[in-house]
Amino acid sequence: MTRPITVGVDGSAESLAAADWAASEALRRNLPLRVVHAWHWEPLTVPVVNDRDAQAEWARTLLSDAGRRLTERHPGLEHTAEILDREPVPALVDAAKDAEMLVLGSRGHGAIAGFLLGSHAQQVIAAAGRPVVSVRAPADGEEVPADGAVVVGQQGSAEDSAAVLRFAFETAAARGVPLRAVRAWNLPPVFAYSPVVMWPGDELGDLAAHHREQLTAALSPWREKFPEVPVDEHVELGPGGQVLLAGTAGASLLVVGRRVRRVPVGARIGSVAHAALHHARCPVAVVPHD
Fold first, then answer.
1. Which residues form the UspA domain (predicted)?
2. How far apart are CA 279 and CA 284, in angstroms?
3. I need a surface site. Which of 8, 99, 165, 221 has the fewest CB within 10 A?
4. Facing residues of 119 across strands?
5. What pTM was computed for the model?
């Protein structure tokens, strides 16, 4: 079964940027695009808009305008549009189930706060069983290069990162761009508890070599499957989010993993994914894995 790329729109500049990104990716991968808007009737206290028919018409117009815009900007794109009559979070999580990926817009960028990821988007990212790509509207004069490298963060074993690396290699192959694979590592906990301990240089070298070997091993099967994708391997001592973000200059996409956790309360996306979503200047794909 061919999975479409699904994008959620709400009429904002951010969602229109997400729709453009999703359309371009659908054309690259020769996939259909499904445009959705989650709308559920809720009586409001403001009389002028407290009308179900008026709200429904607004939702239909929003989708119609989005579809017309996509047709004009992306000739040859196969796309459909649909109103989801549910609350936004469950509607988008369900929409992601049958999608190759779900694409959402993210709000703005500030020097201190970074990207302001909406609460709905964060909940969807934390709950979706498929990759979710977060795209922001570019600032004036800013442009993310479409031919920039795909950067992927690799953590854990080859099995742990298989889904993340698969998505990154597929995306790099579809775009015809190189892949930059990054693995961050930290000193063993004993060093944190005993700061006076001086690790010999050879021991640190052994640790670095171990992580290089882990990264190479994780990449090996995907190099074989995608021989056309040039791969640059980078291993660095430091916090995962910081090391990963430092390697995204000129990147077209950053791909990170999110371990699927069953928690009783709240949404969890992990510290590295959180840092990427709030501070990366390029679109960010969050790929769930066991």
1. 1-136, 150-288
2. 10
3. 221
4. none
5. 0.88
**Per-residue DSSP letter, 149:** P
From CA 290, how far away is CA 286, in angstroms rounded?
A: 13
Which pLDDT tens digit goes with each residue over 80-99? 999 998 888 999 999 999 99
Type of residue found at 120:
H
Q: How far apart are CA 22 and CA 101, in angstroms?
A: 9
Contact of 154 with 182, CB cutoff 8 Å: yes
CA distance 103 to 122: 12
Residue at token pair 């020097």: 111
CA distance 288 to 96: 12
Digit-coded pLDDT (tens) for 35-52? 999 875 555 544 555 567
- What are the structural domains, with CATH classification, of the chain? 5-136 (3.40.50.620), 150-289 (3.40.50.620)
